Each structure stands twice: as C-alpha cells, then as structure tokens.
Amino acid sequence: MDKKRLQELISELQNGTDRQRRAASFKLSNSNEPGAVSALIQACSDSDGGVRQNALNGLRSIGNKEALDYLDSLNQQSFQDQGDKTTESIYKYAAEMMQHGSTAEQIQERLVEKGLDKSSASIVVQNLMKAQLQAINESAKRNMLYGALWCVGGIVFTVSSYSDANPGGTFSIAWGAILFGAILFIKGFANYKR
Fold first, then answer.
1. pTM here?
2. Which residues contact 130 (CB under 8 A, 6 or more apart)?
3. Where are the alpha helices (DSSP H) in 30-174?
C-alpha cells in the first residue's frame, strides 16, 4: 500500500462517519502496514465496537513490537482475551510456516521481522518443535500399538484355525492381518523419535 492511500485511510479512520471508520479500520487491519499501528491503537478507544474489533485484529495481524506491546499493556478483561489471541496468532503463524516447510531459523527470522524479540521468537520455535516431536511420537506409538494388535490378532486367528482343523485338514492363515500389522508396527517404530 502506498503512503498516500495509507494516509487517506488513517484520515477516514480518525474523521469519518461510523461506516467510513469501520471500512477504514478493516482495510488498515488487513494491510499489514506497520505505519498503521499508531492509528489502530487510537482506534481501539473508538465509540464503535466494529472499529475497535478491526483495530485489535489489525494490531494482532501486524504483530510488530509496538502493536504487541500495546496489546500486552491493556488491562481490561475483554482486551486481555484479545491478548491471549495475539499469542495464539503468533503460534498459528509460526506453525503455518512450519507446515509449509520453513526451517526453524527461517521461522525465527520472520518472527523477529514481525517485531518479536529474538528470545521470544526462539521460545516460540522451541515450543513448536517440541509440539511437533510430541505429535510425531504420539502417532508413532499409536501405529506401533495398532500394528501389534493387528499382527497378534492375525497370529491368534491363524493358530486357532490350525488347532481347530482336522489332522491333515485345511486351516486359514490371516496373512493379511499379520503383514499389515507388522508393516504398521515397523512404520511406527521407524518414526518414533526419542
């Protein structure tokens, strides 16, 4: 967004009708422009609830140090709830970057660019890495458990079928269940990280 358009929106936010202020606050909140932070901070005390909500959303979205400091400084309970969402949005943003293949260093750099200090960005990345490892391990454990159940179930069925068969008669081998269970167990074991 160019500076002229930014100034027009800030002017509408400060001097416009309710409808113009709501529209301007919405556009500024979606602009991710650090230059809009001070105007959005002022808009947090607007008489219109829609303007206030858009301003808070914009501050969370921009997420630079000034915006986050302001959100953290709010003492009212309704705004503290919004502050919780700010932390949530930081983690969500970092998790989305991780899902798209960004490295830990890239995520940390982007968080610092967005205004988070290095130690906070490092903590966010470390917590995400721990959560990712935990999720991988839970999935691996579940695969090992279900794999073992399928494999043992197949073996029990095969042994039962063999013991029930007449001497020299036919019996069933549950090779599908045994093989599926073994593969699932091995997959889980291979993915388990200590």
1. 0.48
2. none
3. 37-43, 49-62, 65-73, 77-99, 104-113, 118-164
